[in-house]
Amino acid sequence: MSWQADCLEWQPDSWQRKPARQQPVYPDPGALQNVLRQLHQLPPLVSSYEIECLKAQLAEAARGERFLLQGGDCSETFADCQSPVIAAKLKILLQMSLLIVHDARCRVIRVGRFAGQYAKPRSAETETRGGNTLPVYRGDLVNRPGFDPRDRTPDPELLLRGYERAALTLNFIRALIDGGFADLHHPENWTLSFARATPVAEAYQQRVHAVAEAIQFIETLTGASIPELQRVDFFTSHEGLHLLYEQALTRQVPRRTGWYNLGTHFPWIGNRTRDPDGAHVEYFRGIRNPIAVKIGPPITEDELLTLCHRLDPCQEPGRLTLITRFGVDQVARALPPLIDALQKRGRRVLWVCDPMHGNTETTASGLKTRRFERILKELELTCQILAEAGLPLAGVHFELSGEDVTECIGGACGLTEADLARAYRSPVDPRLNYEQSLEMALHLACLLRCHKPARVSMTSPAKPQTNLAA
Ligand code: PEP
Ligand code: CO
Question: Domains in the chain, ordered, with CATH?
Fold first, then answer.
């Protein structure tokens, strides 16, 4: 069947006719169907209105008028569905966005890698320890991390537990935001209890004071308080990996055409499941959400063009985000031809950089880590490559934590390999801790200011400074 004919036939389950990578095999198909039936009847987690609002904001980011800040855990765990952990994630994203807004004079779209980031792609199907081989841990949505046959057998009940945890997380985030947690009049709400008096923290506090003064000045001048400052939009995202779960949350809504994934605002396709002829691309092409695809080695120009054509045939503004993750050693060689291929065909997408996943290494003791300096370097190179093509960096995608973890090496806090064992909590990939995240945001804001597209700049920003305490 031609692709054209196939297009007409999209249904939430049409992906089932294509090869699907990274899907768990459940021992009891009856139990699985029972769970999927329940999921299908449960209310959605987000609304089509919110999804369309995000899409419109992403369209602005593609034109360089906004900036996407996407971040959170590599893999959320059910155990971390607790108020302090969720609040800390929100706080660090709010702090980072304040820095970007203030230093780069740029409106920020905040998207959490949370409320559903429970399924992980893995490089091997099985794991062997001491001569025993078991199915690999695929995230809390699928099985359990313990090395025991019962823990590692995919359990469909976990799909319900994942949906519930996502709902609880989102409910708490919505309550915080609606209750004034993100109010710019009170950034003291976002202070992390364990924050140390470092140059990075001091640089952040200076921005907080500057923003407070500016607000006071404007409100005194106008005699009115600015309601836009009292709340922010917060959106959710996760890798749309487990297709039966995603399908169960795919719905039609009154007075809109098409289907929406109402389990998250902004799902993405991972680098391992982006085969243009595969099941994930088939599922994603039919939903109306804005979507992202991770692109990294070994993608070719042809593959990328096919992906863009299948996922965004009408070139809808804000529809398609490409998240690049080539690693610092490959980005300068791999990215320019891809940008060029799309530009020659007049395709507009959002170019977003994930400087984490191409820069993972394993220490002698077997821990996965990433170096702050390499992460930052990939970000700088990506920004520069895009600028040379006349394009804005539309956003960033980080694995980060609002907690005081020790998973990535380097940064001003000077974490070394020897520190990693102290507070290494991620079950999968290493995250920037709160201090490294803030420092990264300061550097990022500086980069954005340097590469600001001329037509967007309404003010004359001060001379770029790399000095963090400046
Ligand atoms: C991830 O985002 O956790 C991930 C697995 O990324 P990628 O698909 O880019 O490898
Ligand atoms: Co990851």
Answer: 3-124+156-180+233-450 (3.20.20.70)
